[in-house]
Automatic annotation (TrEMBL):
Protein family according to the UniProt entry: Belongs to the carbohydrate kinase PfkB family.
Keyword tRNA-binding carried by entry: no
Domain spans labelled Carbohydrate kinase PfkB: 24-290
Keywords, comma-separated and alphabetical: ATP-binding, Kinase, Nucleotide-binding, Transferase
Organism: Goodfellowiella coeruleoviolacea
A Pfam family this chain is assigned to: PfkB
Name listed for the protein in its UniProt record: 1-phosphofructokinase
Amino acid sequence: MDARVMVFAPSPQLTVTVEDLGGEPDLHLHAGGQGVWQARMIASFGVPVTLCAALGGETGEVLRHLITGGGVDLAAEEVVARNGGYVHDRRGNQGRESLAEVPGDPLSRHELDSLYETTLIQGLASTVTVLSGPSDARTVPAESYQRLAADLGGNGVAVLADLAGDRLSAALRGGLRFLKVSHEELIADGRATSGEPDELVRAMVALREQGARAVVVSRSAEPALALLDDDVVLEVRMPPLHPVETRGAGDSMTAAVAASLAVGKPLTEAVRLGAAAGALNVTRRGLASSRADGVRAIAERVALRAYQPGDR
């Protein structure tokens, strides 16, 4: 089967950002949400990628036009449930100011069934599947992630996830080839009591026992931790880069790992490329918008070394 990635993004968002351009307001209109950003990053590596999503309402109509192109194929289910969105003002010195946040509507049972069928078919035609979370927890039930992970993984598709909370628990029950999670998410979910490395390693071992073959924990500016296909925990050291926008770094990491695995790269090489994508993302204002050639150049500076208990 030719290399292809399917990204499950049940309810993308319409994002409106107000920037400053020479003292005048400048509007930026984009399709957003975790899965959209991941799909764009995967496409930047030249790997075919299909985004599976439900689109409805006026926001859904606009999103349909914004998502397509740039190497991303769209497999969309037309639904009555409206997609959400937000308006952010970035003209000040305090980062983003939220002017409006509109959540997406929950999918009806029939809408969910149709989206699941489309996602399953597209996933079975792919070598790698990425399960991303909805922007609003009400959109799809967590058990959908367990079903997708089990149905796709059971048919030979490598299932990757970038999830937290109930959706992470459900996906673990279905089985995962690779999991990316942040240390903040582990603490919020009660899977770790602190951000101390030894505590995070304990949580990673538990995640493996619960269904994830390989686990990477991002730690903001600190080196990520990786538990891959053996029992050796690796510290992923990234080159220091001045941050402009920290949002989306984890999505970039997951996307680069997916793109690498889709073309048959070893997991260690995929993690190195993923770390580079996450590091380079913080230097740009556009989420998951780094170029592949830049990511590959940074990847040469990413070091993997064995983590020793008690390291800080």
